[in-house]
Amino acid sequence: MRIILLSIFLLLTCSLYAQPFTSTIRGTVRDADTGIPLAGASLRLASLESGIMSDVSGSFRFDGLPVGRYVLTVSYVGYEKLVIPEILLESGKESIQDIRLSRAANQLAEATVLTSRPVAYNSVQEITPEQTLRYAATYLDPARLTTSFAGVAVANDQANGLIIRGNSPNSMQWRLEGVEIVNPNHLSNAGTFSDRATQTGGGVNILSTQLMGTSYFLSGAFPAQYGNALSGVLDMYLRKGNDEKSEFTAQAGLIGLDIAAEGPFSRKSKASYLANYRYSFTGLMGAMGVNFGGEDIRFQDLSFNINLPAGKAGHFTFFGMGGISSNTLKADKDTTLWEFQKDGSNIFYKNKMGALGITHALVLNKGTSLQSTLLGSGLTTSREEFAVNPKDFSTALKQTEELSKSRLSVSSIIATRFSDKTRLKTGAFLTLQSDMVGTSAKPAPADHTVEGFVLEPFASFNHHLTSRLSTEVGVHYLYYSLTGSSSVEPRAALRFQVTSSQQLSFSYGLHSQLQLPQVYISGKEGNPALKGNADLGPSKSHHFVVGYQKNFRKNNSLKVEAYLQELYHIPVSGSASNSFSALNLVETNIDTKLVSTGTGRNYGIEATFQKYLTSELYVLLAGSVYKSTYEGSDGIRRDSRFAGGHTFSFTGGKEFKSGNSTWGVNTKILWAGGFRDTPIDAVLSASTGVTEYLEQEAFTLKMKDYFRPDLRIYWKKSRRSYSRTLAIDIQNVTGTKNEAFGYYDTYKKQTVIQHQLGLIPVLSYRWEF
Questions:
Q1: In this model, does residue 765 exceed pLDDT 50?
Q2: What backbone torsions phi and psi does residue 13 show, to the nearest 5 degrees?
Q3: What does the H/E/C string look like for 206-225?
Q4: How far apart are CA 189 and CA 197, in angstroms?
Q5: How many CA atoms lie within 13 A of 2 on its CB side?
Q6: Where do the domains of the chain lie?
Q7: Residue 641's Cα: distance from chain center in Å?
Q8: Per CATH, the architecture of 18-113 is what?
Q9: What backbone phi and psi angles, to 5 degrees, belong to 706?
Q10: Which residues pair with 655 in a beta bridge?
Q11: CA of 685: how far to CAs of 589, 680, 750, in Å?
């Protein structure tokens, strides 16, 4: 016993008096509008008595810093003061900051901002890679992290399809480096009722966190440069690889095995590379004959970002991502184990996605910059289902599903600052797109391609009216060649700096979004010669947001927003008076003539209190109450499928330091109102063999409230040249059986409630050197 006590004492003593390991925080300070380096910017770390200044190239560096957490404050004459919290410095890894400052136009001297790239006055949240690694049960996916934000919920635990302010997940848009891309997720059929691929969600994000820089999540009244979305935008940006020394990251866990490398191409150049490869842990287990719940799930992906400075010719980046995934379910040979209709099927699902692009940034003069991007992305999925005969295990093809999407986009944006108070940003996106939907499933066979180009020019004018009052007005235009439809969309925002720590804001936007491919091809009634619904224009919405924000000391803030979204030109049934509306679609195929006479309405109020990670503690408390309704062709206003009524999330954690070790305990608690479902006609379903609904009672059933607590515990250990992190994530600690949807099961011959995921532990080990 004495030996054990003595050993513990020696370990504690060594920890207390261990020489702290050091690393570097460095980067550049640039003008947010033009990208011009800012020489002489003042930078100060909260833990240091003195600061430093950026050099003539805008570069700065803090060398010899003990590893740990830092808060960086950046100020420059004539610009808004910027505070960057939650900087994590680890041994073996430099922290490289790309800092962008915005003109202040004589704003109050003590006013500060907490985002390095302002993109909107309202309804915008910054997502950093460090938060994705720290928050509980994110599965290294920024989309899953957004459930910590007010007004956001997931459609199903198995996927990252986002319900934003009562809108369908299909109303959201994914962007990479500012340009729209196809669904960037593995297993895009995860968690869906029909097992078909969705437009915007999936089980795992293909883009690894190892490559991500700061991303931005917008949830309404977007600025003029954003279009073709009604509910939200997740704008993902890639970080640049270290241009001075080589660094590596290896990670192993239930999600997969990751290997990342970055560094300079040569000592004489600032050109750098960053690459990551990942292979799923479940895929390794599947190769050894081990499956999960009878399913063989596999995926792998590769992503990269190459940074090429070219002096006076500008700055080039070349980037890409690609992933393949599959999900195979085979009927058990022991038929006594069959419980549900799916148990008597062999299902083969495959998913492929890729994106490749190049950007060019050029400073034209002291007040003007040009940013151009060429980006192509594509997606293909296939699903085959075979019915298994329980007597001899012979199979018969039951249905097939195919989906392909491709986007080739070119964009160019010019930012011009005429004075300290005035800025103009203009640009255009031109996208060639093709969508194919092929199915042998009910309600009718289809195999159709939808092709056309989308043109989206925009202009945004920002002006500081006074030292306290600033405004941004703009216009976005959307044209789609397939339908010949166009939409002129005004945008406006106003911000009033009440005091140095308080501001009021107002935003308005008219937004539009093209229809889903299955909407355009429906109505052909099996005859490809018919036009179907190709004459439908985009769905539209007026979005109003009023916001108030209070910044407290020590990087705490309170934000309250009220919003109203009036949706119109929504496709509803044109052949009958009923409750159908495209607002409630997720992945379902339809076969009816539609007209754009439907409407919808979402309104609510949201509140967010955020304490960034300082003094080894962070808290993010967010909640909303909202109403979501719609009208079909029968003119009756009903609750929508996603009318949960409220969302609540608590995300927080505490770190405990001991010498060169750090323990972290993090939790996330989600509580949301249950979504709605339509009663099932069991008699008709038994007759037809598929789930049939009582459409006249659409969405009158309210599912139970959704509740899920998550937990993440990690241990970080620093060495002289590397650091390592051992962590365990536990999703749904209490094992709550949240409801997903109901369906008629032909094997059980009754209505069944499908539940979401239960308790899932995820162990991971991360090594950075």
A1: yes
A2: -65, -45
A3: CCCHHHECCEEEECCCCCCC
A4: 4
A5: 0
A6: 18-113, 124-768
A7: 21
A8: Sandwich (2.60)
A9: -90, 130
A10: 664
A11: 18, 8, 9
Average per-residue pLDDT in the chain?
Answer: 88
- Beta-bridge mates of residue 414: 370, 426
Strands 162-164 and 152-154, bridge-based pairing: antiparallel
* Backbone torsion region of residue 166, taken as left when φ is above 0, otherwise alpha when ψ lies between -120 and 50, otherwise beta: left
62: alpha, beta or left? (left if phi > 0; alpha if psi -120 to 50): beta
**If we measure between CA atoms, which residue out of 707, 683, 701 comes closest to residue 741?**
701
- Matching CATH topology for 18-113 and 124-768? no
Q: What's at 129, amino acid-wise?
A: P
- Token pair 């500008």 in the structure block, residue: 314
Please give the single-letter amino acid code of residue 151: G
Q: Which helix (H) or strand (E) holds 710?
A: strand 706-718
Pairwise CA distance, residues 187 & 201, whole Å? 9
| Single-letter residue type at 80 | E
| 503 vs 561: CA distance, rounded Å | 12
Token representation of residue 159: 């996927």
Instruction: Answer for the pair 84, 49: CB distance below 8 angstroms, yes or no.
Output: no
Q: Which residue has the tokens 């934003």?
A: 164
The pair of three-digit structure tokens given for residue 565, joined into one six-digit string: 């979204």
Provide the token pair at 406.
């491709």
Q: What is the DSSP letter of 762?
A: E
Pick one of 3.40.630.10, 3.10.180.10, 2.40.170.20, 3.30.420.40 as the CATH number of 124-768: 2.40.170.20
> Residue 129, SS3?
helix
Question: What was the pLDDT predicted at 333?
Answer: 87
* pLDDT tens-digit readout, 312-363: 899 999 999 999 999 998 988 888 888 888 888 899 999 999 999 999 999 9
Asked, as a colleague might, if the bond just before 443 is cis with ω within 30 of 0, I would say yes
Q: What is the pLDDT of residues 123-134, one digit of tens each?
A: 899 999 999 999
Which helix (H) or strand (E) segment is 134 a member of?
helix 129-134
How many other CB atoms are found less than 10 A from the CB of residue 442?
12
pLDDT of residue 4: 39
Give, in order, the Cα–Cα distances in Å from 354 to each of 214, 267, 415: 21, 32, 30
- Side chain identity at residue 133, one-letter code: L
pLDDT tens digit sequence for 275-319: 999 998 876 776 666 666 678 889 999 999 999 999 889 999 999
Q: Residue 36 is which amino acid?
A: I
pLDDT tens, position by position, 626-669: 999 999 999 999 999 999 999 999 999 999 988 888 999 999 99
For residue 551, what are the β-bridge partners? 557
Distance CA 154, CA 685 (A): 28
CB 608, CB 548: distance < 8 Å: no
- Return the residue matching tokens 């003061």: 81
Q: What is the pTM of this model?
A: 0.91
Q: Cα separation of 680 and 601, whole Å?
A: 26
Distance CA 475, CA 489 (A): 5
Q: Rounded to an integer, what distance in angstroms lies between the CA atom of residue 408 and that of residue 432?
A: 5
- Region 370-380 average pLDDT: 96
Name the H helices within 547-666.
none
Are 741 and 677 a contacting pair, CB within 8 Å? yes
DSSP states along 227-286: -S-SSEEEEE-BPPPPSSS-EEEEEEESS-EEEEEEEES-TT---EEEEEEEE-HHHHHH
Q: Give the 3-state secondary structure of residue 130.
A: helix
* Token pair for 368: 């003007």
